[in-house]
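Notes from hallway chat w/ T.B., transcribed later so I don't forget. T.B. wanted the structure written out for a chain they're using in a teaching module, and asked if we could keep both sequence and structure tokens in one place. Agreed to drop them here.
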Amino acid sequence: MKKLALFLSFLFVISCTKDPIIYTLTTSANPSDGGTVSPSTQQYDEGKTATITATASSEYLFQSWSGATGSTNSTSVVMNSDKSVTANFVKKKYALTTAVEGEGTVTEKVIKAGAATDYNSGTIVELTATPSGEWLFVEWKGDLTGSENPTQITIDKAKSVTAVFVKKQYPLTIEIEGEGTVSEKVIKVGLATDYNSGTIVELTAEPTGDWEFVGWTGDITSTENPVQITIDNAKTVKARFHKPIDYLVNSHYYKNEMNPYFDLIKITKNHGIEGPKYGGYDTGVAYADFNGDGYIDINLMLNAGVDGDFCEHFMLINNGDDTFTMNNDLITNTNFSTYMSRKTIVGDFNGDKIPDVVRIAGGHDWLRKSNIMLSDNGTFTFKEIDEVPLSQYHGFGSGDIDNDGDLDLFFGSPNSGFAINDGTGNFSWFRVDKKIFNFWADEVEHGPYGMQTVEILDFDNDGNLDILIGGSYADNSTDPQLHGPTILIGDGSGTFDYEKRVQIWGIGDKPYLDGVKVGNNDDFSFADIDGDGYKDVVLLYIYQIDDDPNNNGNTTMYFQYQIMKNIENISFVNVTESWLPDSVKQCTCVWAIIKDIDNNGRIDLTEYSSKTSKGGSNPNITCSEDAWRWEWNGSKFEKIN
């Protein structure tokens, strides 16, 4: 009974107590991937304190609470109502540091931004490297590598990027003409290395041996040495060296060894120097470096009169590539009146190392004084050589006859004699018998008329000049002419003795063609053709057939080469048929040249220059303008043209 009463009392007490009040706590993260909040959702009795913790995700930071207070990632709220609390997160922010090496700029372009703003973690930035002026972008360094431009970088931590720029680099190409070297010295270097844009290079030309520096061509046109060049693009510079031309050599050597081989007809045509107005190409031409630039120029004195009574003068300056520009300003008196030249010689007659030009002027019924084009402070002046008698000279030669260091002249017939130079281009005249003994025939007014053709050279290699004379020859021993082409052997004294001579051929050996004897021997040239140590000779003849029935009764001219082999400087033997079977021509030719014109080690037999296109005196013959040329093959000459 007592137990029952106690139980009933307990029930009464329970039924009189209030139910508890429950509140809900709801949490969230902003942004949702910025982190987590704990607890996420939970109920609390009224008055309880709820502790909330925010945990940031990778690349986010806790920033603040919404619905709660506090600045740390943990806060608490008293649950006196339902609560909603948000943890605010922000992206981590990183510095992107860009630097420049060289000269240029880097621009930044946001390709994909993070959830917050500029350069938040996860932002993708496009970097563009822009070089300045003469600079080039090369690569990225630091937290970005490679040379791609533009390129992208993801900002997931603090990053530093350097754009590397270098000066543009250009090649400086040095070419050499002649023999010498060029040294390069950097005077002012660009910000990077050797030969960057803006580098100033000093070039010094250093000739080899007896070569001389002439000047620069290409991207520098100057004679200054050393010279400076600024490398602001690809540059090519040619240093030009040339071997000084010795204009004190004898005329035969200059003609056969030093003269260049130009196509004169084509060159003159390009300048309007052609046609019936002009003639005498081969006899009036001089080749030499007249303006001192190292290239061989052309000086012409050409027939211009209807009857050949006066000449015009031209100076063609080599442009460096064997094209030519007319520059008559180098001649002070181009109106110098004279007759066509029968022969032209180049040499230094006044001792200034600059080429002068001597010409014999005169023809049938057109007598003129021989003349010299003499150098004078960079220009040239024509003047007559008054000391030389007025005459119709056929040939002459030059050489240091009296061994005093300057060039003298020897003139053939008629009025043959020596013009001895005083070293300044002034001459003293000596009649032929004053220098050649045992030669003059008293009954002949002007001396032997057989020396139309003259050459001066060292025939026997003894260091003394010898004289070759010939041209028109006696038919018998009683004629007051030379018996044949004759070499007067010199002893260095400046005089010669006719008794000390070597004859190439003599009486009875005069060449014939189809029963017609030789008219004139217009030229001869010496060279050791077969390599036996002795100078052989090539002679060039004219055959004249008057009243030729095969030419409508007109005169026909033939031209023939003859080769005489030297036998130990004592005598000669005719080897024309075996060495040069193609020796007879009808087209006009003037000079015989023996030299290796193409520098292939094989000697050539050729003309002085291209010939005119007329077939001698036969109007039925048309000739090519290409010069005749043969090349020695070791046993004979082979035809090239």
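Follow-up for T.B.: The mean pLDDT is 84. Might be a good example for the class.
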